[in-house]
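Narrative of activities, Objective 1.

The group set out to show that a structural description can be obtained from nothing but a protein's sequence at a throughput compatible with the screening campaign. Below is one input-output pair from the validation batch, recorded exactly as produced.
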Amino acid sequence: MRLSKSSLYQSFGNKEALLISCIDHYQTAFNQKLSELLKASTSGLGFIAQLLESVIREANDPERKGCLLVNTVNELGGCPRIEAVARESLFESVFSNI
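Output recorded for this entry:
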């Protein structure tokens, strides 16, 4: 599928809105994964162990380039709105399922 710049701007308005939409999607997928891990765990300790194992697997996967939220904060820290959205999403992703 090929998309032109004009198609992207018609759908999202600008690059910032596109990135915010990507962050929202990433957070939703992450929250779903956490929720599934939590439901599959028989104890709190089991959940933490599964979560850490998942993080280790993903960190060792050469196809992955890190966490979108952490990378966004690191790379776009000079853009206050994007940084705030990424930080808020990261915080919500971590604590919304507890």
